[in-house]
Write a structure and sequence with these properties.
Keywords: Coiled coil, Membrane, Transmembrane, Transmembrane helix. By secondary structure, the chain is mainly α. It contains five helices and no strands.
């Protein structure tokens, strides 16, 4: 008891000390400051996430605009190449009709080059790529549906064949049993012959 009372007195003295109270107040202030800084950090992180989202949205919008710009440029290139190729063929035909074969051949060659580049441009167009992708997807779906229907039909045919085989086997076994039973059973003529033989033996 004396030791407990001594400890209580020491605690009272410590709590009554102004320096200890100031230290506790300073610790509380530090905790509050730490909480405030954590809240600020969380706010900054939220703002950074929002900024990143906005930047991603702007980048996607820029990418879409660039894709549209590329599409327009590719379409213009295709139109220009088509015009040049048609013009080369037209002038080549005129030169051929006028008898200038070399110039006509050169113009036809240039027209062929323009046509080949036009084909390449058309193949690489985004619209053509989308159409090809859609066609491939439709072809795959049709192929999968046909494969599923063919597998179902083959399975039903196999089941029919198996059931028919079992029925045929049962019918054949029944016929064999009937024939065997018919063979085992004596006919009427055989019975009469046996009876006549028995009577003849008795008379003898």
């Amino acid at each position: 008891m004396a030791s407990d009372l001594g400890n209580m007195l020491r605690m009272m003295n410590i709590l009554g000390d102004e320096g200890f109270v100031d230290a506790l107040e300073n610790a509380e202030r530090l905790v509050k400051n730490a909480d405030e800084t954590l809240e600020r950090v969380e706010q900054i992180e939220g703002d950074a996430e929002r900024a990143v989202r906005e930047a991603n949205e702007t980048l996607t919008a820029v990418d879409n605009r660039l894709a549209k710009f590329d599409e327009t440029i590719s379409l213009l290139e295709a139109k220009i190449e088509a015009g040049f190729s048609v013009g080369f063929f037209f002038f080549g035909l005129n030169r051929y009709l006028e008898g200038e074969l070399l110039l006509a051949g050169a113009l036809f060659f240039m027209g062929l080059l323009g046509a080949s580049s036009l084909v390449v441009t058309i193949v690489t167009l985004p619209q053509v790529r989308r159409l090809r992708e859609m066609g491939l997807q439709a072809y795959r779906r049709v192929d999968e549906e046909t494969d599923g229907s063919s597998s179902e039909s083959t399975g039903s045919v196999r089941q029919q064949l198996e059931t028919g085989g079992h029925e045929g086997g049962s019918v054949g076994s029944g016929q064999e049993e009937s024939t065997d039973s018919g063979r085992d059973r004596p006919t009427r003529t055989e019975r009469r012959r046996r009876r006549s033989g028995r009577y003849g033996r008795r008379e003898q």
